[in-house]
Write a structure and sequence with these properties.
- This protein is mainly beta and about 350 residues long.
- The chain has two domains: about 40 residues; about 300 residues, Methylamine Dehydrogenase, Chain H (7 Propeller), CATH 2.130.10.
- Helix content is about 10%, strand content about 55%.
- Strand 17 and strand 18 form a beta hairpin.
Length: about 350
């Protein structure tokens, strides 16, 4: 009787072990398939990082290792002092200025074709909202600046407002909230006064004077507007443009961006090297990542596949891209850009021929 029970127990143990092994194998198989599906990229899918530098053709890099990957359609565009990029609906939009004429280009990177739209003045920034693209420009000959609305389907100008009526000086950057409200920061170098303006489409809502020096960048998230001025970040209500708070000791005046509950601010160290500041949602500084030992500045940044790409300028070296991954920094200096100013960066995944 005891022998019979032992045999039955052994048979049950063997069956249980087999089922467990089969189950583990099945879990491993499913996990491998899911991982492969999420990580596999066909050979014709490219991950690119595009850089704008004054007086240079648009520079295209492989986003994984920052090696240069020239793209003919981008190199065929006019040279510009300033570049702005937007990627939406498998089209790249580039704002640039050739001589004194502003253009927005709609580019199909797969087919290497483009459409061209002329806009008045020097293009300072472009942003999209649904099927619309908004452009801020300034005509330096007349000192008039404009907020322009472009329909992406027809790729034509549908509205234009003289922006300088509300804020004298140069408009530098715009940000668009989830409800479509537009915020523009501008700076009058003559009076050294900065402005923050709110629009609904091209309809002006309100303009205030920014309580800081040289406001060049803006970000909006969750009912607030974050203005990056020299050495600080100033917060306003998106509804009323009333002052909320400010964060000091953020040296420099590079861009501010929000991602996954954190604010990322491009700037410099107190000693003048490029630096990335990371703040939590309460605007407490969580970390400072020095990007280089060389004197210079960080100007703008973007995010791609869990990594941070920071654009900057190094003294006597030129424009540089810093890839930040878990506090590790990889640097790529762009050749022949010693006398250039870095003006735009975007990373994207695109299907190519």
């Amino acid at each position: 009787m005891i022998k019979m029970k032992k045999r039955r127990y052994k048979r049950k143990t063997k069956k249980t072990s087999k089922r467990l092994l089969l189950g583990l194998f099945f879990v491993f198989l499913v996990g491998s398939v899911v991982l492969f599906a999420f990580t596999y990229k066909p050979a014709n899918i490219e991950c690119l990082c595009l850089i704008g530098a004054s007086g240079q053709a648009i520079i295209s890099l492989d986003a994984s290792d920052l090696t240069e990957k020239p793209i003919q359609v981008l190199r065929s565009l006019p040279l510009s002092h300033r570049y702005s990029f937007v990627w939406t609906k498998n089209r790249l939009y580039v704002g640039l200025t050739s001589s004194v004429t502003g253009y927005v280009y709609q580019i199909n990177l797969k087919e290497e074709t483009f459409k061209e739209l002329e806009v008045p003045g020097t293009v300072m920034d472009i942003k999209t909202f649904h099927d619309k693209l908004f452009v801020i420009t300034i005509d330096y000959s007349t000192r008039k600046s404009y907020l322009i609305e472009v329909d992406l389907n027809s790729f034509s100008i549908v509205n234009k407002k003289v922006f300088s009526k509300y804020a004298p000086g140069t408009p530098y950057e715009l940000a668009i909230a989830k409800d479509g409200k537009i915020f523009v920061v501008s700076y009058n170098s003559s009076s050294r006064v900065s402005y923050l303006s709110a629009f609904e489409g091209v309809k002006h809502l309100k303009t205030i004077t920014v309580a800081g020096n040289a406001a060049l960048h803006v970000e909006t998230i969750e009912g607030k507007v974050y203005v990056r001025s020299r050495n600080e970040l100033i917060v306003y209500s998106a509804n009323t443009l009333s002052f909320i708070t400010r964060v000091s000791s953020l040296y420099g005046y590079g861009a501010v961006r929000f991602q996954n509950g954190y604010f990322y601010v491009a700037g410099i160290t107190r000693e003048g090297q490029p630096q990335l500041y990371i703040l939590d949602s309460n605007l407490a500084i969580q970390s400072k990542i020095q990007l280089s030992q060389t004197t210079g500045t960080a100007t703008s940044l973007t995010f791609f596949e869990g990594k941070i790409f920071v654009l900057g300028l190094l003294h006597n070296l030129g424009c540089a891209v810093f890839l930040v991954d878990n506090n590790n920094v990889e640097m790529h200096v762009i050749p022949n850009t010693v006398n250039c100013w870095p003006s735009g960066i975007i990373c994207l995944e695109v299907e190519r021929k």
